[in-house]
Write a structure and sequence with these properties.
This protein is an alpha+beta fold. The chain folds into 3 domains: 3-188, Beta-Lactamase; 223-371, GAF domain (Beta-Lactamase, 2-Layer Sandwich), CATH 3.30.450.40; 383-538, Reverse transcriptase/Diguanylate cyclase domain (Alpha-Beta Plaits, 2-Layer Sandwich), CATH 3.30.70. The protein contains 16 helices and 18 strands. It has helices spanning 3-7, 13-31, 39-54, 99-108, 123-129, 165-216, 223-238, 282-285, 290-294, 308-316, 350-373, 383-400, 414-421, 423-439, 465-481, 512-528; strands spanning 58-66, 71-79, 84-85, 114-117, 136-144, 147-156, 242-251, 254-264, 269-270, 280-281, 299-302, 321-329, 332-341, 403-411, 447-452, 455-461, 497-505, 534-538. A hairpin with a 4-residue loop joins β2 and β3 (84-85).
Length: 539
């Protein structure tokens, strides 16, 4: 008695057909609920009543990947012993094209099923099926839109048997449901990938906009903090953990580069530059990159696949995957940004590369703008920014008859501070003073600049005498409240400032020097009268 005979013992043909129909209906109810469950869950539960009704031990879905070459591979496997979905056989991911498979495909090309028993296997069939424990098998072809899509193989690994016509009809219907489920799953995956790609592109666009705002805003924090914040946002999306920015220059008749910025995720942001990357020739550092990058081509590869010199340099710093983006400004090869991944062997996707191009340009322009407008040490505006903007401010105020106030600010006894505590502490003191001044000059049109050395200037458009005096008092108090020790100061036990303030009605006959000269006179007066105070006079 066969496995199927035991299953159907005592059932006549009509009762057996009813069993098939009921099993198929149960399966159909599960398969049509696809949208609510995972594919493996659907297939596992949907095939269970079918396998029980047909007395099957295994059901495998194969999909044809290349009809001309008869190349097909396993897409899904159900196993009775495992109670449902089973791991795909790696050997069958791409089915070997044997003489048996060629013969089977020829038979199934007109939509005919193939039913085989072990005792009747031909030699080539036995070589393929017997090692897999097959005693009986039904191979069901699947056609979609008139094309040979694949096959479903139904296995009895217990004993030899014949599949009756009603069982074959049930398994044909099941095969079509399996194919339909897999096709829908693939379409859903493609749709989800498209949505995911759109979502990622939107995220990239939003991130670039945020970084642009960070770099273009009047942010008076330290420049490296601003850079680190921008780079970190890009790194989160592009998934790199190292960034170096290199700027080009000509030296000794050849193109050289210097590392001007370095970011490392493991350090939490900006970190020290590599000394060996200062003023180094391309021919020494990256001999194969100069002409390639100069032509506008990005490098996107594993470090191990690069020529020997480039690979050695990058691997020294633990970089596994690298992207080098050339930066051209005003039609000139300005330099390049090097993005590194120290953990994953990967090639960066095209949309990520485009994001890196935009980011590299933002990074370079941030440096250029910083050098032009900001003081490298303190991060606040510099003398050049002051000179360029005062003419514009006076011109605007002269049309409206507005007032302009200007404060000249000097750190008291700063030379003694440097002599006592050293220049490193002196730099820290300058940073604290600059930050404190900036935090207390809060209106949109107001700004503070480092005028030179320990001197600062606060520019206050549309501010009258009373406003200027209030700001001066506020700055004096807040610098005192910093409590920076200064034991050699003759003004106090901690760092203080002196201020010279001037206010005047702006006129087209005025220039910046008029306000600077008057404020400087008042600063001198504050110093002569004991420091740690302000003096005021109208222009």
């Amino acid at each position: 008695m066969t496995n199927a005979d035991r299953l159907y013992e005592g059932l006549d043909t009509n009762e057996r057909c009813e069993l098939y129909a009921n099993s198929l209906n149960k399966s159909l109810e599960i398969f049509v609920s696809y949208t609510e469950k995972e594919v493996d869950d659907i297939m596992s539960h949907g095939l269970k009543p079918i396998a029980a009704a047909a007395g099957l031990d295994r059901i495998i879905v194969f999909r044809i990947m290349n009809r001309d070459a008869l190349l097909c591979g396993e897409k899904y496997r159900w196993d009775r012993i495992l109670g449902g979905t089973a791991p795909i056989d790696d050997v069958l991911r791409e089915l070997p094209v044997t003489s048996a498979i060629r013969r089977w495909v020829s038979i199934m090309s007109d939509d005919s099923c193939i039913s085989l028993k072990r005792s009747e296997f031909k030699e080539d069939e036995a070589a393929f099926l017997s090692p897999r424990g097959v005693m009986s098998i039904l191979i069901v072809p699947i056609f979609t839109e008139g094309e040979f899509w694949g096959v479903v193989t139904c296995h009895d690994n217990t004993m030899e048997r014949d599949f009756d016509k009603d069982c074959i009809a049930m398994l044909r219907s099941t095969a079509r449901m399996c194919a339909s489920t897999i096709i829908r799953a693939e379409k859903t995956l493609i749709a989800n990938q498209a949505v995911s790609a759109l979502s990622r592109r939107k995220k990239m666009s939003d991130t670039l906009n945020k970084v642009s705002l960070i770099f273009l805003s009047e942010n008076e924090e330290e420049f490296e903090d601003t850079m680190a914040a921008g780079v970190r946002l890009i790194a989160e999306v592009a998934e790199f953990d190292r960034l170096s920015l290199f700027r080009n220059h000509i030296a000794v008749g050849s193109l050289h580069m210097s590392q001007i910025y370095r970011w490392d995720k493991s350090y939490g942001g900006s970190t020290d530059l590599v000394e060996s990357f200062a003023d180094v020739a391309y021919t020494y550092f990256m001999p194969n990159w100069e002409s390639y990058l100069a032509s506008g081509n990005p490098v996107n590869t594993l470090a191990s696949l690069l020529p020997e010199r480039e690979a050695a340099v990058l691997q020294t710093f633990g970089i596994v995957s690298v992207v080098a983006i050339p930066i051209h400004i005003n039609n000139s090869f300005w330099g390049f940004a090097l993005f590194g991944d120290t953990k994953n062997a990967r090639s960066f996707e095209d949309d990520i590369i485009e994001m890196m191009r935009s980011a590299a340009f933002l990074f370079a322009n941030a440096f250029i703008r910083n050098e032009v407008e900001y003081d490298a040490l303190t991060g606040i505006h510099n003398r050049r920014f002051f000179d360029e903007n005062m003419k514009r401010i006076i011109s605007l105020l002269s049309r409206s008859g507005g007032l302009l106030s200007l404060l000249m600010i000097d750190i008291d006894f700063f030379k003694l501070y440097n002599d006592t505590y050293g220049h490193i502490e002196g730099d820290k003191c300058l940073k604290i003073v600059a930050r404190t001044l900036s935090q207390n000059i809060t209106r949109a049109d107001d700004f503070v600049v480092r005028y030179g050395g320990e001197e600062f200037v606060a520019v206050l458009p549309n501010t009258d005498e009373r406003g200027a005096r209030l700001i001066a008092e506020k700055l004096l108090d807040n610098i005192r409240n910093c409590k920076i020790p200064h034991e050699q100061s003759e003004a106090a036990d901690f760092v203080t400032i002196s201020i010279g303030a001037a206010t005047g009605k702006a006129s087209h006959t005025h220039n910046a020097d008029d306000f600077v000269k008057k404020a400087d006179e008042m600063l001198y007066k504050s110093k002569q009268s004991g420091r740690n105070k302000y003096s005021f006079e109208r222009l």
